[in-house]
Amino acid sequence: MVLGFRICHSKVWTYISYCPYHYRGLHMNETEKKSAPRKGIVVALGISCIILVACLGVAITTYTLAINDKNDQISQLNSGVNSTFELLLSHFSNLQNQSNPVLNTTGATFVIINQINLDPAKWENRTVIVIGKLYGPYAYFTAISYDFVLNSNETVTSQTGLDVNSIGVDFRNGGAQWSGSTVLIVGVVEKGIIGTIVQGAQPTTIYYIEEQAILTS
């Protein structure tokens, strides 16, 4: 629909009109202009997501390669440790043949002290072979399941508060003659206690080695 009127002035006809359809067109153009920035934002977010997914994929791949590399290193270290144990066992076996033919290592597992301490329940009641420096005997004012301490790399000054590289050892007889020496001990990992003088307090549960046989270097 067209609305209009004419004005006659100096033989010039002026026609003024108003068209609703034309107005609609202007309105649609404004809507399109408003939606254009939104489309740009959606595209930008899509690109960002793609980049993030790609980065995540690279990170996962890198992490997997690093883990595999660490596993290879651990395997190599374990292999080296096993080789070292074999050499030490061979050394102590030669000593055994010379001076102590009764040492029996059948069924025993060669372990490092901290392997026991990291998961002692796993080793409970199992026969192990450990090497370290022996310290003791220690006097303790309450009940404790062992009198000696075996350590793999440090000097021990107490039989309690031991670190991961130390473990208590109980000898059936003696033991003092080997104090300060590097020894190989065959024994059974057992659960014991460190007592307390505090009334009502529960004793501390610990794990130690009940010695069955010993060799010195």
What does this molecule look like?
By secondary structure, this protein is an alpha+beta fold. Among the domains are: 3-36; 109-216, OB fold (Dihydrolipoamide Acetyltransferase, E2P) (Beta Barrel), CATH 2.40.50. The chain has helices spanning 20-99, 113-118, 120-123, and strands at 3-9, 12-18, 109-110, 127-135, 148-151, 166-170, 182-194, 204-216. The strands form two sheets. The protein has a five-stranded mixed barrel. Strands 1-2 form a two-stranded antiparallel sheet. The longest helix is centred in the first third of the chain and has 80 residues, at 20-99. The protein is elongated. The termini are far apart. Residues 1-26 have low confidence and may be disordered.
Give the secondary structure arrangement, pairings included:
Elements: E1 3-9, E2 12-18, H1 20-99, E3 109-110, H2 113-118, H3 120-123, E4 127-135, E5 148-151, E6 166-170, E7 182-194, E8 204-216
Parallel strand pairs: 3-4, 6-8
Antiparallel strand pairs: 1-2, 4-5, 4-7, 5-6, 7-8
